[in-house]
User: Fold this.
Amino acid sequence: MPETTTADLLARRARLLGPAYRLFYEEPFHPVRGDGVWLFDAAGTPWLDAYNNVVPLGHARPEVVEAIARQASVLNTHTRYLHEGILDYAERLLATMPPELGHATFTCTGSEANDLAMRIATAHTGGTGLIVTRFAYHGVTAAIACASPSLGQYVRIGDHVRLVDAPTGGDAETGKRFADGVRAAIADLQAHGLKPAALLVDTVFSSDGVFTAPAGFLREAVDAIHAAGGVFIADEVQPGFGRTGEAFWGFMRHGVVPDIVTMGKPMGNGHPVAGLTVRPEVMKAFGQASRYFNTFGGNPVSMAAASAVLDVIEQNDLQRNALNVGSYLREKLAALGQRHAIVGEARGAGLFIGLELVTDRATRAPATAQAAKVVNGLRQRQVLLSATGPDANVLKIRPPLVFQREHADLLVERLDEVLGTLFG
Assistant:
């Protein structure tokens, strides 16, 4: 049989999947196997994965694979039958959060979780107004895509949605500036006869360019939405499960207690499991007026996978590893600025890092085209990451939580080579 080429796969993909799907990199990558922080192509070449937070425990983690297989061989059904697995996992999940969050509900994707969160918020507040950041991503359902401007210019922002600037700066006034934006959005909603329902933010602002400092800056904005009768929804799909190192959940770095917390991607280490936790008083109106059912959300196999993820994070102290290795990596990335003028700020928390590339450090003019060249240059050197932010000039680095210092060294070494080759 003739060998299947990249061109063959691209043609087949276009024919079968249509035009809406997108691929990373100028030269698409075709992995066939994963193991820990590595992905492997058909030739057996290892590629360092510095991007996929979907697998916080690393690719093909044996404990998760075994938990899925074990449960699938016994029973897999839905939440309209009694099953201990969903209860055991809900208890463990809620124990990682403030006691005010007393209920858990499960879905299959983070998009579904955010969609459900807005339904709950609307039922509780009687409002429909939603506030998100200017380049946010929260999901792909109709109700959430209209509040996800990072999906692209052809995605129409909802009439009930208001956009605010991301909390840039990292100084003592960051929180006030962000809260001022939220208050202005609230006033605009009210001026148009719309009652605010929720402030929804990804607590590391990953699509906006990764903004994590100073810890605590969210408090004033949360107070503002509460004062307006709305709720605060913390989207933990990307920053959750110990990734920031400083806390198990990104919102904890800010000393706030959300009304609803949504989660997804890393929850099952690649298995499609997601969900939310919520204050019981916030869930009450929705629960009284609606029945919630999701055929696959909370099924026994998903709960087994999710429980195994918590086991491995706890037993291997991966939150601490994220803190230590993340700090080490961020320092080494910042040091590249001494040799490469294009390197701006290295920011983030734990193993969620954004490295800003600029054409002028004084003005912080974004190096958009250059960032694309760097991402593709790293792909040519077997290192996988991406770019984020409204100008796509921030290298987005969020490897599996099992990333070690030697992996950080390799990433920085290859990045140094790429920057030197491209820009001297």
Notes: The chain has a mean pLDDT of 97. The first strand starts at residue 31 and ends at 35.
